[in-house]
């Protein structure tokens, strides 16, 4: 079984989602299916079909989360140090064209959320950042052409 690197908070978010699906969502959809069955002919019952689709989604997501959680390898970024970018690092960058600064944490594939500043370790930007240190410049392919960034700061924890 392949192990996936993940931060502790990322694993906790997935475990919380799994617990919520099992303890709240699954029982609610079972009740919705039971309620829809009381409405008669199942072949023409839209509520029943919608509830069954929702149940299928929930069961699939539960199975997916259980597999991800069982194959997670938790890495604590606070135990890491150095000035080179590696998994768990918080990296502050500046876009050399627009002069906009951004900060990202390099995290596991299953916990990435760009809106929250969590960048997947397998993304093109993260791959370009790995091993770099403050002052280094990277070039990343983008739909509108290559983008250049300068690494301003690297911190852990």
TrEMBL record:
<dbReference type="InterPro" id="IPR036953">
    <property type="entry name" value="GreA/GreB_C_sf"/>
</dbReference>
<dbReference type="GO" id="GO:0006354">
    <property type="term" value="P:DNA-templated transcription elongation"/>
</dbReference>
<dbReference type="InterPro" id="IPR028624">
    <property type="entry name" value="Tscrpt_elong_fac_GreA/B"/>
</dbReference>
<dbReference type="GO" id="GO:0032784">
    <property type="term" value="P:regulation of DNA-templated transcription elongation"/>
</dbReference>
<keyword id="KW-0238">DNA-binding</keyword>
<keyword id="KW-0805">Transcription regulation</keyword>
<dbReference type="InterPro" id="IPR001437">
    <property type="entry name" value="Tscrpt_elong_fac_GreA/B_C"/>
</dbReference>
<dbReference type="Pfam" id="PF03449">
    <property type="entry name" value="GreA_GreB_N"/>
</dbReference>
<dbReference type="InterPro" id="IPR018151">
    <property type="entry name" value="TF_GreA/GreB_CS"/>
</dbReference>
<dbReference type="InterPro" id="IPR023459">
    <property type="entry name" value="Tscrpt_elong_fac_GreA/B_fam"/>
</dbReference>
<dbReference type="InterPro" id="IPR036805">
    <property type="entry name" value="Tscrpt_elong_fac_GreA/B_N_sf"/>
</dbReference>
<keyword id="KW-0804">Transcription</keyword>
<comment type="similarity">
    <text>Belongs to the GreA/GreB family.</text>
</comment>
<keyword id="KW-0251">Elongation factor</keyword>
<dbReference type="InterPro" id="IPR006359">
    <property type="entry name" value="Tscrpt_elong_fac_GreA"/>
</dbReference>
<comment type="function">
    <text>Necessary for efficient RNA polymerase transcription elongation past template-encoded arresting sites. The arresting sites in DNA have the property of trapping a certain fraction of elongating RNA polymerases that pass through, resulting in locked ternary complexes. Cleavage of the nascent transcript by cleavage factors such as GreA or GreB allows the resumption of elongation from the new 3'terminus. GreA releases sequences of 2 to 3 nucleotides.</text>
</comment>
<dbReference type="Pfam" id="PF01272">
    <property type="entry name" value="GreA_GreB"/>
</dbReference>
<dbReference type="InterPro" id="IPR022691">
    <property type="entry name" value="Tscrpt_elong_fac_GreA/B_N"/>
</dbReference>
<keyword id="KW-0648">Protein biosynthesis</keyword>
<dbReference type="GO" id="GO:0003677">
    <property type="term" value="F:DNA binding"/>
</dbReference>
<protein>
    <recommendedName>
        <fullName>Transcription elongation factor GreA</fullName>
    </recommendedName>
</protein>
<dbReference type="GO" id="GO:0003746">
    <property type="term" value="F:translation elongation factor activity"/>
</dbReference>
<feature type="domain" description="Transcription elongation factor GreA/GreB C-terminal">
    <location>
        <begin position="83"/>
        <end position="156"/>
    </location>
</feature>
<feature type="domain" description="Transcription elongation factor GreA/GreB N-terminal">
    <location>
        <begin position="5"/>
        <end position="74"/>
    </location>
</feature>
<dbReference type="GO" id="GO:0070063">
    <property type="term" value="F:RNA polymerase binding"/>
</dbReference>
């Amino acid at each position: 079984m392949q192990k996936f690197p993940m931060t502790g908070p990322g694993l906790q978010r997935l475990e919380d989602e799994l617990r919520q699906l099992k303890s709240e969502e699954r029982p609610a959809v079972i009740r919705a299916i039971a309620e829809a069955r009381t409405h008669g002919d199942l072949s023409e019952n839209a509520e029943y079909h919608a509830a069954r689709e929702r149940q299928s989604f929930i069961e699939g997501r539960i199975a997916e989360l259980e597999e991800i959680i069982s194959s997670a390898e938790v890495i604590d970024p606070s135990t890491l140090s150095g000035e080179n970018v590696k998994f768990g690092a918080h990296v502050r960058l500046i876009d050399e064209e627009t002069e906009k600064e951004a900060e990202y944490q390099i995290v596991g594939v299953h916990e990435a959320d760009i809106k929250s500043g969590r960048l997947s370790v397998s993304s093109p930007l993260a791959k370009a950042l790995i091993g770099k240190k403050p002052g280094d410049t990277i070039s990343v392919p983008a739909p509108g052409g290559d983008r250049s960034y300068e690494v301003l700061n690297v911190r852990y924890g």
